[in-house]
Design brief:
Strand content: under 5%
Radius of gyration: 16 Å
Distance between the termini: 49 Å
Number of helices: 3
Shape: elongated
Structural class: mainly alpha
Length: 67
């Protein structure tokens, strides 16, 4: 049986996010033209990589460009 949850019922349940994407990648994908974000090092803790990795992957798959 499938039951549709209300917003209150969903808030009560301890659910993990439906997406397994990194929160920095989600923020980069949500950018509109002429917008910018600043990413703190505490938000992106991959040792030998930077958020530029996400930008390069997104540029290849979509028509977005990043500076």
């Amino acid at each position: 049986m499938i039951k549709k949850l209300t917003a209150e019922e969903l808030a009560k349940k301890a659910c993990r996010p439906s997406s397994k994407k990194h929160k920095v990648r989600i923020a980069i994908e949500a950018l509109q033209p002429h917008e910018a974000i600043e990413i703190a090092r505490t938000d992106f803790t991959w040792r030998s990589s930077t958020p530029q990795r996400f930008c390069n992957e997104i540029q290849k798959k979509t028509n977005k460009e990043f500076n």
